[in-house]
Amino acid sequence: MRRRMSLTDERQAWAHFVKTGERELPKHNKFNATKTEANGRVYDSGQESKRALDLQWQVEFGEITDLQYQVRFELVPKQHGEAAVFYYADFVYKNKDDKTVVEDSKGHRTAEYRIKRKLMLYVHGIRILETKPADPQPRRRRKRG
């Protein structure tokens, strides 16, 4: 049995159907990130694609090597009746000192991500480098008075 849509969702679905003829609304990310293509590769967000382009330039200039995308790390192995738990790093590469760097583009830290970050440190001894977008406008405090 289908759950009844809210009025807003119904209007959006109807507008989408009229515009495209498709019955299903496109799925959206819960953090409003849109999949973006850059250099023939699809990324989960625009921020991740921009960071990938930066890293690709660093590879070209010889600043980093062995750039890999969406590398899987096992955090908890499969157990009886339970699936394994994995962490997918956005980027893994070697820096000038030949040290492996695991990097993640983060716009929002979820509770699940925080746990996986701690498990990466505990299980693999790897500290994740988090990159955030530059804040275009610093937030100003409002004066009360």
| Unreliable residue runs | none
Overall strand count:
6
Main beta sheet: strand number and arrangement? 4 strands, mixed
Structural class: alpha+beta
Order of helices and strands: HEEHEEEHE
What is the class of the domain at 36-131 in the CATH system? Alpha Beta
For this structure, the CATH topology of the domain at 36-131 is Trna Endonuclease, Chain: A, domain 1
* Count of helical regions: 3
Q: State which percent range the strand residues make up.
A: 25-35%
- Which of globular, elongated, flat, extended, rod-shaped describes the shape? extended
What do the pLDDT scores average to?
82
Largest beta sheet: strand ordering: 3-4-5-6
Alpha-carbon Rg, integer: 20 Å
Helix content: 25-40%
**Named CATH architecture of the domain at 36-131:** 3-Layer(aba) Sandwich
How are the SSEs placed, and which strands pair?
Blueprint: H1 7-20, E1 36-38, E2 41-43, H2 46-60, E3 65-76, E4 85-94, E5 100-105, H3 111-124, E6 129-131
Parallel strand pairs: 5-6
Antiparallel strand pairs: 1-2, 3-4, 4-5
